[in-house]
Amino acid sequence: MPQSVNTASFSSQANVLHLPEIDQASSLLADRMAKPAEIIEGVLHAGTKAVLASGSKVGKTWILLDLAIAVATGTPFLKFKTEKKKVLLINFEIRREFIADRLKIIQHRKNQPDLTNLDIWNLRGQTADFETLTESIIQRATKENYALIILDPIYKAMVGKSENVSSSVGVLCNQIEQIVEATGAAVIFAHHYAKGNASKKNQIDRMSGSGVFARDADTIITLTEHQQKSCYSVEMTLRNLAPQLPFVVE
How far apart are CA 104 and CA 69, in angstroms? Predict the structure, then answer.
């Protein structure tokens, strides 16, 4: 009679994860680790995740294009210094012709004729399988050595999934983290507010859908309508950097 085989033991051995060693606290403190560069001074490190959130049609794409040009040219974003680095903006929503129009306007306003460090990947209608797209982003971003990757907007990466379901958002955040870990770039994505008066909610509770969006991000930047017309309050929650006082932009 043949001997029975414990397939569970083989299965567990085959699926052993290759994880980092456990750090002893004294050794960890003695290790002179260099902190990652600040892509946006005081706001965003390389190798971290960020979300820019506001109400619908407030101008998130305009702001992210402004950020892209600022980092690509090493010029200020809002009131913060940036480090000149290569940037990839992945546009999921706006037609190629119209994104070009916006880019021209901001380039002119900022007086930055040289956008050599900025690449735009127009993927409107191509986000049905974000898992596969994640692999393509990693391949291209690693080759080009981007320091900042912008995903605009994030809901386009959730085709067929609900932003209200924690497990679905968790999978998405894990895919974004794969991009961060594989490339070393900072990744920032645009997200929208839930319906209702956002100013009456805590800053990190204003985003639509699962609270995982806020809990996962290292940097949260929100723009909330100000009482003065055409103005917005900018607030930030920063995991690894000193707090920033709220301020108003027009």
Answer: 11
Q: Which amino acid is at 106?
A: I
For the segment 117-173, what is each residue's pLDDT rounded down to a tens digit?
999 999 998 766 788 889 999 999 989 999 999 999 888 888 878 887 888 888 888
Specify the long-range contacts of residues 181-185, CB closer than 8 Å, at least 24 apart.
181/47, 182/138, 182/141, 182/142, 183/138, 183/141, 183/142, 183/146, 183/149, 184/36, 184/46, 184/47, 184/147, 185/46, 185/47, 185/88, 185/141, 185/146, 185/147, 185/148, 185/149
Q: What span, in angstroms and rounded, lies between the C-alpha atoms of 112 and 121?
A: 20
End-to-end alpha carbon distance in the chain: 81
Burial 158-178, CB ≥16 within 10 A → b, else e: beeeebeeeebbebbbebbee
CA angle 63, 66, 71 (to 5 degrees): 125
pLDDT in tens, 68-88: 999 999 999 999 999 999 999
